[in-house]
Amino acid sequence: MAEFRPEKKEGGGNWLGFKQGKILEVKDRSDEFDWADVYLQVDFEVEGSKYPRVMTIAGSYDRTDDGEDIVDCRLVKRLYWFLDTIRSGIHINLKGEFEKDNDETIVTDLPKYLMEGGITGNGLISSESEYELYVYREPPKDNGKIYTRVYPRVSKRTPTELTDFKSYINYLLDKGFLKIYNGEEVVSNNSDSLSSMSQDGLDQL
Question: What is the torsional sign of CA 198, 199, 202, 203?
Answer without folding.
Answer: negative
